[in-house]
Design brief:
heterotetramer, A alpha/beta (280), B alpha/beta (386), C alpha/beta (438), D alpha/beta (431), A: 280 residues, alpha/beta, Nucleotidyltransferase, domain 5, C: 438 residues, globular
Chain lengths: 280, 386, 438, 431
């Protein structure tokens, strides 16, 4: 039996999970999210780590593998680091065994990743260049419109005549939105417009991976935005891609989960190698 | 003999020096010396050398040059190398250069040749065309003529190039290409002994100092590096493709390695190993250069591939020969030749079952996180699945 | 009296200038542009008209012996008191709006606590307003959103913590309410605010030896002068959205050129860094535009860049400059994208660079972009004038001075404290010419 | 595009050439759509440096991917095609002409008029003025695995065409292009047929140049940018060398002679340009996806384009070049090298300078195109030079040929308005 901790240090939040893994028997023991909001992410990470251990009566020595992912290559108490696409793929598969691809929608860029049934990353595509259509942009606009992060999804779903901004640059797109407000376009239609353009970009990424089967999982900070998930499904239909895009209440933990699971896997490999070395 | 640190420190200093002190000093050391700059692609450096001149590679401004004038001349959707090169020119960092060659790379560099003529009408500059037709009678003849024109132009050195001069220079550059290939082979064999950032710096130094000096430097490096005991990491082996013109910041090369990849082949500064075989040192030297160009050039996106079946095969060959596990397409943003070629190469790799990833960079890319992320994921999959 | 008005509808702020028949500027007003352009120009105009009243009052007080040469100070203090009246008025409005928005369904579970938090926040804000507008106090901005907003965020975080509720709620209520408040033109009753202000002033500063009754009449008469909107010219980014006929609209290039010429008649090169536009303009000795260049499709390096950075660091945009001035070195920032600069900033912080050094780098990178645009338009010709919102940022000005010197040597650099009004000033002159020189 | 406002007596003639032009362009699409029945072989090639006279010698029908992209842009179909190509892995950074074509292919290769575009029997890589072309046809060859003829046209980097360059191109025609065409078409090359075609070309070219130069009149009877796009259609594509083209330019010329006689300005989609307020020279391609909006911005301000470089992409005839039946292959070689973007920057700058002076223009407007580096790289340098040499102000806007994402109407309008107001202000100050 292996006890592992997965720590995902992201731009917006630090996610920490505790797992007990025994071969294929994977038990998720606990989880913790801390929004960064201008605090020091590494301090948050360590605090969350210790908090979870204490809560379950564990010490650092009890942990077989501390696996980090995200912006956490340099955490001193980590056993090993996995890059976020590796961990999101595995996490998505854990959350939904039918997932064969995922869209990771973060604050600054989006990624589409395809994987096999064991969670191995096959292909991926990232957005780049300019930040219009990023999660950060959506957050800025929502704040400007006076809409809470958790309200965005429901509101966007009420859109009746979405207004899509043409802007390639986030700053200019922001002005487009201000112009929309001055033309009395409703917040619902503005948000939906942004969702549509984000979804268009993401589905474009996914399409280039040429995935044709399985479920498309949403992970990352924006996975809980139901309006975006709807827009993604609409964009899939428009592109004649016959796969459902789904989210999971724990989607934001995908990276941390993946890290914990890969950590256990790697731990197994390492102990095996050690045993072999001792034997010989 | 110099230690590995001393060699790489010297190369790092050459790399960091945006005023080209080494070339300036070479020029100042003797009256009548001339320096000819060239953009990063094939130019017949043998001719320049034979004329008693130094061929100086102009590879942009890197991530340490503040570009003001250059941005005034270029729109945001043009790659970075021409703008930093203009900046180098307008800030008098190239004031000692006696001529500029703009080889056949792309539309942007081609137009840069005209900008040079407008900005520095009194300094020799020339768009150096190479044939895209590989028939000796057609492209070959044209190219011999182009070489002849250049040979004439280089009379600004005050020295007439004899055939023997040229044969000697060819021999010297044959040696340079052989050593560069040896360096690459050394790295492919033992990548932990020759980190890519070091190999890059050694290779790059060849653009900035005379070939005699550089040949010795490569030898010294290989000797020093082979002596050392450096830890071998659990890295995956990759080939870099698409970086033939604008150079990545050194941090990017380091980041790729840090995130778990050993680079075992690349297309940085191809001019150092452009010919895949020796240029004959007997017979008519211009013919020798021309025919070798037609028949033994490396493959890269600026050159037409007449045989569809052969398109992209070079990359598969490189992966096989170097035991690589995948290919990283690292192309400059807005680089039409590299980015348009990429889908074809990816198809070829897919057919050969070779995994690949791709990202874009600029010479001044400041954010390495997305790059580490991608290279790291690539390395992860080796770590987890091998 | 005849008033010629120029309105510069920018992407972040809207400015208005009132000019009289004699080409004298008698009033200036500014507001956030935000979502409603009509409101923004109405507010800016109203503010300029208020400022005009002060100018008129100034004229009335000129020969008023009882103040013994203290007219300037007196007026300044009166204006400060007037502003406080205005501030409290808007604060009340904001509080009411917040409370109304807190009625929303999503606050059901926390309403009691939230209402309490809000009340505590506003009570504190009202108390603080005295100090905020006290004699000699420095305010970081003239905008209600900036003054009230920054403090609101800090206070509500503290009070939310005490009340044990998530700070997001208060934040959300604020975001909803501030827009409503901003889009409501301030209430009319000018005289009331003048008199309240005057009343406070006479109590606060007995040293003037002036009673309320002493100047009440003068104030009344200054307010009674009829201000005729003789001709209004609109300019700026949003000018096409103004409900003006075509001959009342001028490009901001012409207006900035002319405005700069009016401030400095020997200026030849004008740089304006606005919210999402950077313009470099070459003008001749008459203020006629010879050439201009603007940033391209991407808004990299414009004023909004600083806004993003400020958001990223959770501070007001006005605080950036002073921090950057403390830098001991300038960290190189390569990202030209406004939004990605935030990511680069985090990268640098993670690498252990100091905040002030990074900020110095960010300011330099903005100015570098501007230098390229200047170079595109033909370089700098003596004298050089720097205008726009960013001209108020000392770190940007420092970076500009350094770079101008590095690239063009010793050049006279003009920066007027009122440079943000340059476009509106040019507009008002166009308005004056349209009538007086027609 | 909606129909121009018609005025009975005068515009009937205008419509005659317009209708003729449209019928010609459409007829080529018809011919392409009908190859299954006709059995004609299909040759793909590019506009700059195209060898239409030669291709005609082999009875082949020409398909011009650039023209398809333009037509798809005008019909607002290009945006979806570009997205399609990007979905298939093409970078957002690269040329949208290519991506429109690849996207069209991926979507079933239905041409802009709704007719199918047949697969190529041969790709004629008339590699002129642009490296992107090279990659473009390598991509198509990768897809279709068909015969490809590569014609390397040397760039006139030093501003001149040398004998070695001409020999090189002629040799390629003889050893690469003609044999491949003979093989694919089964038709033996007949140099006399080529001479005949070239003679037709030269005739049409004379009238074409006359049309372009008619803009020297005040007011100009034509718009040499927006209107010019229609005028270049036949001569830059499948019709150069045909009698049809000779006829078209004759008709066009007589219409314009009539307009000059009556002192009329150009016809625009918004109606006749009544008051020529500004005379402008343009550099760079237009934007096709919002062409009407773009043109209207000129119309609203009374700006007429009197000379443009875009109408020289398929040959700089106004600087003296004519196809010459007496030197058939040499003249084809020289034609290729004479195309606008195959000229070096100093030459291009000189051309612009002479346009400003010869056409008595008020200034230079550069529409810089995101997709086309051949045009765009260096335009800012040219702008400065032209300003310096002519003393006339220049303005710079950025759009794209066929990518609707790169046309920001508010942005472009703001700049154009500012520019025209500036010229106006200067004029008043000078008066």
């Amino acid at each position: 039996m292996t006890i592992t901790v997965g720590i995902d240090v992201g731009t917006g939040a630090v996610k920490t999970v505790l797992f007990k893994i025994d071969g294929d028997d994977i038990t998720w023991i606990d989880k913790q999210t801390d929004r960064v909001r201008n605090r020091e992410p590494f301090v948050l990470a360590e605090a969350a780590f210790d908090y979870l251990l204490e809560k379950h009566g564990l010490t650092r020595d009890d942990i077989d593998y501390v696996a980090t992912t995200g912006d956490a290559e340099n955490i001193p108490y980590s056993t090993g680091h996995f890059y976020s696409m590796t961990t999101h793929a595995r996490g998505a598969l854990y959350l939904n065994p039918n997932a064969r691809s995922l869209m990771d929608i973060g604050a600054l860029n989006g990624k589409a990743i395809s994987m096999n049934e064991q969670g191995k990353v096959l292909k991926y595509k990232m957005t780049s260049q300019c930040a219009s259509g990023s999660g950060q942009f959506l957050e800025n606009i929502a704040r400007y419109l006076g809409i809470g992060q958790d309200e965005i999804g429901e509101l966007s779903k009420q859109a009746d005549n979405p207004e899509v901004s043409s802007g390639i640059c986030a700053v200019l797109a922001e002005t487009d939105v201000i112009n929309m407000v001055s033309r009395s376009i409703s917040s619902a239609n503005i948000l939906k417009g942004i969702h549509i353009s984000m979804a268009g970009r993401l589905v474009k990424l996914l399409k280039s991976l040429k995935v044709t089967e399985g479920v498309v999982m949403c992970t990352g900070g924006l996975a809980l935005d139901s309006g975006l998930v709807l827009a993604l499904n609409e964009a899939m239909a428009k592109n004649k891609m016959d796969m459902p895009v789904v989210s999971h209440p724990d989607s934001i933990y995908a990276g941390a989960i993946g890290a914990a699971i890969w950590g256990a896997f790697r731990h197994g490999k390492l102990t095996q190698a050690e045993t072999l070395a001792k034997a010989s | 003999m110099a230690t590995r640190e001393e060699i790489t420190d010297r190369c790092q200093a050459l790399y960091d020096d945006l005023t080209f002190t080494a070339a300036r000093e070479w020029k100042a050391a003797k009256d009548g010396r001339h320096v000819i700059g060239f953009m990063p692609m094939y130019v017949p450096r043998e001719l320049i050398h034979a004329a008693g001149m130094m061929a100086l590679g102009i590879l942009g401004g890197g991530d340490n040059l503040e570009v003001i004038q250059g941005d005034a001349y270029y729109q945001s959707y043009i790659c970075r190398i021409p703008r930093s090169t203009i900046e180098l020119l307008l800030t008098d960092r190239l004031d000692f250069v006696d001529g500029m060659l703009f080889p056949s790379i792309c539309d942007v560099i081609r137009n840069l040749s005209g900008m040079w003529k407008l900005l520095r009408p009194d300094v020799y500059s020339h768009y150096f065309d190479v044939p895209q037709n590989y028939d000796r009678e057609v492209g070959g003849e044209f190219y011999i003529h182009e070489l002849g024109v250049l040979k004439e132009d280089l009379k600004i050195s005050g020295r007439k190039i004899t055939d023997d001069d040229l044969r000697n220079s060819i021999a010297l550059y044959n040696e340079s290409r052989r050593l560069t290939r040896e360096l690459y082979q050394f790295r492919a064999d033992k990548p932990w002994l020759a980190p890519s950032s070091e190999v890059y710096l050694i290779n790059r130094a060849g653009m900035l100092i005379p070939p005699e000096d550089h040949n010795q430097l490569i030898k010294d490096y290989i000797a020093a590096a082979s002596e050392e005991d450096r830890p071998k990491r659990d890295n995956s082996r990759v080939v870099i493709s698409g970086s033939f013109c604008e150079q990545p910041p050194l941090n990017l090369i380091k980041s790729i390695e840090m995130s778990g990849c050993y680079v075992v082949d690349d297309d940085y500064m191809l001019v150092n190993r452009w010919f895949t075989k020796e240029v004959p040192t007997d017979g008519d030297p211009l013919k020798a250069l021309s025919y070798t160009f037609l028949e033994a050039s490396v493959k890269m996106p600026s050159c037409f591939e007449p045989d569809e079946d052969n398109k992209g095969q070079f990359l598969v060959d490189s992966v096989r020969e170097n035991n690589a596990e995948g290919v990283i397409f690292a192309a400059t943003s807005f680089c039409d030749p590299a980015l348009l070629e990429r889908p074809i190469l990816q198809d070829v790799l897919n057919d050969a079952d070779i995994p690949h990833i791709s990202f874009k960079y600029a010479e001044n890319t400041g954010q390495m996180q997305p790059i580490r992320e991608q290279a790291g994921t690539f390395a992860d999959s080796i770590k987890l699945w091998s | 009296m005849k008033c010629f008005i120029g309105i510069d509808l920018g992407s972040t702020t809207t400015k208005a200038v009132v000019m009289d028949e004699n080409k004298e500027v008698i009033g200036r007003g500014i507001t956030n542009s935000r979502s409603n352009y009509d409101t923004a120009s109405a507010v800016a105009k109203q503010e300029a008209m208020i400022d005009t009243r002060f100018t008129l009052l100034h004229k009335k007080l000129d020969g008023y012996d009882k103040l013994k040469g203290n007219q300037e100070v007196f007026l300044h203090d009166l204006e400060r008191n007037f502003r406080r009246e205005q501030f409290v008025e808007q604060l009340d409005d904001l509080q009411n709006t917040c409370l109304r928005n807190a009625e929303g369904e999503r606050f059901n579970t926390v309403r009691t606590d939230l209402t309490e938090v809000l009340s505590s926040v506003f009570d504190t804000l009202r108390e603080e307003s005295l100090a905020l507008y006290a004699k000699g106090a420095k305010r970081k901005s003239d905008f209600f959103r900036d003054i009230a907003g920054g403090r609101f965020l800090t206070l509500s975080e503290d009070f939310s913590k005490q009340a044990g509720i998530n700070y997001d709620y208060a934040l959300n209520v604020y975001d909803k309410s501030i827009i409503e408040v901003e889009n409501r033109p301030p209430a009319g009753n000018l005289e009331g605010k003048f008199f309240n202000g005057l009343n406070n002033l006479t109590k606060e500063s007995p040293e003037f030896g002036i009673t309320f009754e002493d100047v009440q009449g003068l104030v009344k008469s200054a307010l009674a002068i009829e201000l005729e909107e003789t001709f209004v010219v609109g300019t700026g980014y949003g000018r096409v959205r103004l409900p003006f006929p075509k001959d009342h609209i001028r490009s901001e290039i012409l207006c900035h050129g002319l405005g700069a010429h009016m401030m400095y008649k020997d200026t030849r090169t004008v740089l304006d860094i606005g919210g999402q536009d950077t313009k470099s303009i070459q003008i001749d000795k008459n203020g006629v535009v010879d050439n201009f260049q603007m940033n391209d499709r991407c808004a990299a390096g414009c004023g909004r860049y600083l806004g993003y950075i400020a958001d990223e660091m959770n501070m007001g945009v006005h605080e950036l400059g002073p921090i950057a001035m403390k830098a001991t070195k300038v960290v190189k920032i390569n990202s030209t994208c406004t939004v990605f600069a935030g990511a680069e900033l985090r990268d640098r912080l993670a690498l252990g660079e100091k905040r002030e050094d990074i900020l110095a780098g960010l300011h330099r990178s903005i100015v570098l972009r501007a230098m390229s645009i200047i170079a595109r338009s033909g370089g700098i010709h003596d004298q050089f004038t720097f205008t726009g919102g960013v001209a108020k940022n000392e770190a940007a000005v420092k970076a500009l001075r350094d770079l101008v010197k590095e690239n063009y040597g010793d050049v006279t650099i003009n920066i007027d404290p009122d440079s943000i009004y340059t476009g509106a000033l040019g507009g008002s002159e166009f308005a004056r010419r349209a009538v007086m020189e027609a | 595009m909606s129909a121009p406002i018609r005025k009975p007596s005068t515009d009937v003639q205008k419509d005659a050439s317009m209708a003729k032009q449209k019928a010609m362009i459409d007829s080529n699409f018809d011919r392409l759509g009908n190859v299954k029945n006709s059995g004609e072989k299909v040759s793909y090639t590019f506009v700059p440096g195209n060898l239409n006279e030669l291709i005609m010698c082999f009875d082949m029908v020409g398909n011009y991917p650039e023209i398809n992209a333009i037509q798809n842009g005008l019909r607002k179909k290009s945006g979806g095609m570009i997205m399609e190509a990007e979905k298939w892995g093409h970078s957002e950074d690269v040329c949208t002409y290519v991506k429109t074509d690849i996207g069209m292919m991926r979507k079933g290769n239905i041409g802009p008029t709704g007719q199918p575009i047949p697969e190529p029997d041969i790709l004629m890589l008339s590699y002129t003025g642009c490296y992107t072309f090279l990659k473009w046809f390598e991509l198509l060859r990768h897809e279709y695995k068909c015969e490809t003829a590569m014609l390397h046209v040397p760039y006139t980097g030093d501003g001149k065409i040398t004998k070695s360059m001409v020999d090189y191109v002629v040799k390629q025609l003889k050893t690469e292009v003609i044999p491949k065409y003979e093989k694919i078409s089964g038709v033996k090359f007949d140099i006399d047929r080529l001479r005949e075609n070239l003679a037709n070309s030269a005739k049409a070219e004379d009238d074409f140049v006359w049309v372009l130069e008619s803009a020297k009149n005040k007011p100009s009877p034509i718009d040499a940018y927006f209107g010019g796009i229609y005028y270049i259609g036949p001569i830059f594509t499948a019709f150069r060398g045909t009698e049809l083209a000779v006829d078209y330019y004759k008709t066009l010329r007589s219409e314009i002679e009539e307009r000059i006689r009556k002192g009329q300005g150009p016809i625009t989609p918004e109606g006749e340009m009544k008051n020529e307020k500004y005379r402008i020279v343009t550099e760079g391609p237009p934007n096709y996806t919002s062409m009407r909006d773009f043109w209207k911005m000129f119309y609203d301000e009374g700006a007429v384009v009197v000379a443009s470089t875009y109408t020289k992409v398929g040959g700089t005839y106004d600087f003296g070049f004519r196809h010459d039946p007496s030197r058939p292959l040499e003249s084809l070689a020289e034609y290729c090298m004479h195309c606008y973007t195959n000229r070096n920057l100093p030459e291009r700058t000189r051309m612009l300078e002479s346009y400003i002076n010869d056409y008595e223009a008020d200034g230079l407007l550069i529409n810089s195109i995101k997709s086309c580096n051949s045009f765009a790289a260096g335009e800012l340098m040219m702008m400065r030079e032209v300003e310096k040499r002519t003393g006339k102000p220049a303005a710079f806007v950025e759009t794209d040929l066929v990518d609707p994402r790169y046309f920001s109407a508010a942005n472009v309008k703001n700049r154009l308005e500012s520019y025209f107001q500036m010229i106006d202000q200067k004029r008043r100050a000078g008066a």
